[in-house]
Specification:
- This protein is mainly β.
- The chain has a single domain, classed as Jelly Rolls.
- The chain is about 5% helix and about 50% strand.
- The longest helix is centred in the C-terminal third of the chain and has 12 residues.
- The chain binds cobalt (II) ion (CO).
- Cobalt (II) ion binds next to strand 5.
Length: about 290
């Protein structure tokens, strides 16, 4: 019997829910509200990808946020961001925008194109109670500023946050210690990534397919497949140092992990606080123009 599990395993496969947001942008909600507790500190992950302007052109007109951070990662296309604190920038392919809503921000995101492909992800990362009312702000991280490491077996790892393969990522966050990697696997390799045992973690495959688990594992530890457009929730496998991801053909995926806050989560649309009273206050403050 194994005394040490080399890799976390897949606890659950989740298929996203097709929906639309903003002024009618089509997207897939991968991490839905019912997974917020299990995947604490992450609150939401949306995947968008379309070459039909009708599905993205209306964009996201002015809307508020309070109490958490939004992390937008563009694969293709360009989005212009504007907020009521003087922030403005264009998100370009391969770039990330890390926005801290804190006590309140009102922003818009509009396509900077009228045709072609628009694809990427938006992740919501919770803030601890003590920081929910912090000053809002945002950082643009252009593609050139985000480290990319290539392993000897040809796996390319873009380190958006946290650390991987000895490289420090573009962002670090003190309370949730997020790891956010975009991993490109050639066919026929195994890739190993360390993960702190207490971190909640998941993968989202957006091209090809992968397997997750110890290649030598059997029974409950046997590698399990995760297909394109599926999220694999990684078990908090006791004693596992990390996760082993394998491929037969070329594949692309996000690997996201973070330290849970273990605080109450109260959400009303774009406001995520700890109590309903704080949500009522958020609505009142927004309506009073205090954002
Ligand atoms: Co927003």
């Amino acid at each position: 019997m194994a005394t040490h599990a080399p890799s976390r395993t897949i606890e659950r496969i989740v298929r996203g829910v097709a929906t639309s947001d903003g002024a009618g942008v089509k997207l897939t909600r991968v991490l839905t509200q019912d997974l917020q507790r299990r995947l604490d500190p992450f609150l939401m992950l949306d995947a968008f990808g379309s070459d039909k302007p009708d599905e993205y052109i209306a964009g996201f007109p002015d809307h508020p946020h309070r109490g958490f951070e939004t992390v937008t990662y563009m694969l293709e296309g360009q989005l212009r961001h504007r907020d009521n604190h003087g922030g403005e920038g264009v998100l370009a392919p391969g770039g990330v925008q890390w926005m801290t809503a804190g006590r309140g921000i009102v922003h818009s995101e509009f396509p900077e194109q009228d045709h072609g492909m628009m694809a990427g992800f938006q992740l919501w990362l919770n803030l601890p109670a003590k920081d929910k009312m912090c000053d809002p702000g945002y950082r643009d991280l252009p593609a050139a500023t985000i480290p990319v490491v290539t392993t000897p077996s040809g796996v390319s790892v873009k380190v958006i946050a946290g650390a991987a393969q000895g490289a420090a990522g573009a962002m670090t966050r003190e309370n949730t210690e997020p790891i956010y990697l975009d991993i490109h696997l050639p066919g026929g390799v195994d890739f190993e990534q360390e993960l702190p045992p207490g971190h909640n973690a998941f993968i989202y495959v957006y091209e090809g397919a992968v397997t997750v688990g110890d290649p030598a594992g059997s029974g409950n530890y046997a590698p399990r497949p995760v297909q394109k457009s599926e999220m694999g929730v990684l078990a908090n496998t006791k004693d596992a140092a990390g996760v082993v991801i394998g491929s037969t053909g070329p594949a692309r995926l996000l690997l996201i992990a973070g330290k849970p806050l273990r605080e109450p989560i109260a959400q009303y649309g774009p406001f995520v606080m700890n109590t309903n009273e704080e949500l009522r206050q958020a609505v009142a403050d927004y309506q009073a123009g205090k954002f």
